[in-house]
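Good day; I would like, with your permission, to put a structural problem before you. I would ask you to consider whether the tokens describe a fold that such a sequence might reasonably adopt. The full record is reproduced below for your convenience:
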Amino acid sequence: MMDLQYFLEMVDHKHRHGSNLRKYHARWNTQETDQSFFYWLDQGDGKDLSLKECSRERLDRMQVRYLSKEERLNYLVHVASDGLLVWAKNGERVWTRDELFKDSMKGIVPASDSTPAYKYNVPHENSSSSDDTSSSESEKEVNSMKPDEGEEYINEDFRRAKGPAKIKHVSAGVLYNHMIRSSLKKG
């Protein structure tokens, strides 16, 4: 059976991140409403709601990109003989630093590449001014506001449960998210 956060992410027409949707879904469950969840969230009583544990800006900014078979080839990697990851398309070593690379319509490319960025990964603009200072300053703001990288992989029900009650919340998705979160811890 599919975990709730993955189901919500899949059926959401905006494909917002499932762990963020789950927080809003939990709030929706406490409301006395006859509105469906996505109607409540986007057009109904919850459209202006911003939760402390997941702001509305974060909910709308973090989206999942579903790729076609052809698009997946742009992200295919191989393990080289030295154990490092290399891109299948060109054999170059994989680097994960945001300053050096960007996600584009043709996969991960150098930041200097002219290929247009994938539209859902473009940072939201807060102002319509055309200052040249906006690019580097807004990037610094976004980077300084980044939460714990692994925060999106927390399963709140599993985290809150104590003792044997945790077993009720264990699924393949929870175990996977726990392992991912552990791999992203600093230090």
The longest helix spans residues 18-30.
